[in-house]
Amino acid sequence: MNKYGYLIFVILLLLGLLVTTFRTGQKLHVGFLDVGQGDAIIVRTPSGQNILIDGGPDNSFLSQLADFLPWWERKIDYLVITHYHADHIIGLVELLNKYKVEHVLVTAHQPDKDFMYQLWQKALVQHKLESTIVRADQKFIFADNLSVRVLSAEDKQQDFNGNSLVLRLSYGQIDFLMTGDLPVEGEQNILAQGSLVSSEVLKVGHHGSKYSSGQAFLQAVNPELCVITSGKDNKFGHPHPEAVKRLENSGCKIVNTQNQGTIRVISDGQTISY
Ligand SMILES: [Zn+2]
């Protein structure tokens, strides 16, 4: 092999190594992106599928997303919209210009007169995309040991937060509970249905509002890590001291995007690291 042949060999080897690291690391990466006051959560599966839950309050979410994913990635396999509030959806309009979105999962809540909802529907039509309505207890299987179950998908609540799409993502022995902005009443409904909620990682409901994270729910979830997605100096005063107290009493370690920036949780299906 001449000098150039050797160089090309080394470059190909390094590229192969890079791709392997991202694609078959056998690890699940979950990023709670630092988007200020709002939610944007990206899940990258060991086989390189991307599940995005919400898109934050503005386009700054896109640079956070790009930082999290491998540089070549331009595809979102599943986009989940928890509910139609600005702090969860505004960044998604521009997302559609930058990424190829395969599936959009929503609840049956269709607030036709709501401005944000109309804006989003227009963006979907522009990109020839249609939403798929999901129901509670529906399950999506991504691999033998990787699935997502819908725990709540209400559509009749006056308060949009009550219609939050709630998911439990399971990878091996590890579970992540993504609650959107679900209030205590919604948590109680989930408990009343008898759904399995216990999870190592809890995306704390409604940015740490005192109207979410009820004691009974926390007891059932029994989280090891509680992730709060709130913005610095937000006008709502999130997270509320009462909610923080309940989270502390549940025994979980509390992390917050407003202090830590983007929080990346990595799991091999047995343990988590962050
Ligand atoms: Zn919110």
| Low-confidence spans | none
Heteromolecules bound: zinc ion
Q: What's the total helix number?
A: 8
What is the name of the CATH class? Alpha Beta
Gyration radius from CA atoms, angstroms: 19 Å
Strand content: 25-35%
What's the short story on this structure?
The chain is of the alpha/beta class and about 270 residues long. It has 8 helices and 15 strands.
Write structural notes for this entry.
This protein is an alpha/beta fold. It has one domain: 4-Layer Sandwich (Metallo-beta-lactamase, Chain A). 31% of the residues lie in helices and 26% in strands. The chain has eight helices and 15 strands. The protein has an eight-stranded mixed β-sheet with strand order 6-5-4-3-2-1-14-15, with helices on one face. The N and C termini lie far apart (44 Å). Bound molecules: zinc ion. Zinc ion is lined by residues 38-39, 85, 87-88, 181, 207.
